[in-house]
Amino acid sequence: MQKHLAASHGLRTWGVAFALLAATTAHASTVNLDFSTYAPDTAIQSLSGITFSLTGNGGPFNAPVTGLTGEGLANADAFSPDYGFSTPADNLVATFGSLASNVSFIFDNIGTSASSYTAYDQNGHAIVSGSLGNDQGNSLTTVAASGIHAIVFNNGSGNGPSNDWLFTLYSLNADLTQNGLPAGIPTDPPADPPAAPLPASLPLMLSGLGMLGYAGRRTRNATH
User: Fold this and answer.
1) Under CATH, which architecture does the 23-176 domain have?
2) 55-108 confidence digits (pLDDT tens)
């Protein structure tokens, strides 16, 4: 009986969990970052659950910084008002603290180049990529994928060596989930619950039944 109660309780627990999952899978926290509003030379390493870093073309690099007001986050870690950036990195990397979907961004390659983006899953596999050539920061690019762990923005070859080419990221938008599941949904089977405690009155009830049985036997014996 106790095992049946435990199993029934476990099934009810999972039933509630899957009902919540079905009702809330579409739920996610939406992040909208506008780097064009930051003051020049603002270092941005982590923001709203997204980490930004620079890779390629030497290094190590510090956190990426913003350019002139209205220009966004650059593939460089230092900037001066006379438009003198430090040596640009090949890549600006946005790593999401949890899996992302509905990702979109506005990108400006500050000229015409073979810049590109590549989205990766949590295993490091490329999901989707696209060209960002000739994009002057006037259009929104939508990434047609989900389960995104990171996006790498690459400066390509540009009009010369890649290590001389700059770009900026005006904005980045995404829906973030927790490992593909809304927070609060169990990801492991629940442990068997403890056996249901016996009612305090049960021993007294059993004792009374025993006495009734004894009395019944005495009555039958007396009639024979």
Assistant:
1) Sandwich (2.60)
2) 988 778 999 999 877 789 998 898 765 555 677 888 999 999 999 999 999 988
Q: pTM here? A: 0.66
Q: Which of 80, 76, 103 is nearest to 92 (CA)?
A: 76
Residue extents of the structural domains in the chain = 23-176
Would you tell me how many other CB atoms lie within 10 Å of the CB of residue 61?
21
Confidence at 131, pLDDT banded by 50, 70, 90? confident
The residue written with tokens 């980045």 in the block is: 172
SS3 content of the chain, % helix, strand, coil (to 5): 25, 35, 45
**Sign of the C-alpha dihedral, residues 131, 117, 31, 83?**
negative
58 alpha carbon, distance to own chain's centre = 30
> Is residue 174 pLDDT above 50, yes or no?
yes
Q: Which of 93, 112, 196 is nearest to 154 (CA)?
A: 93
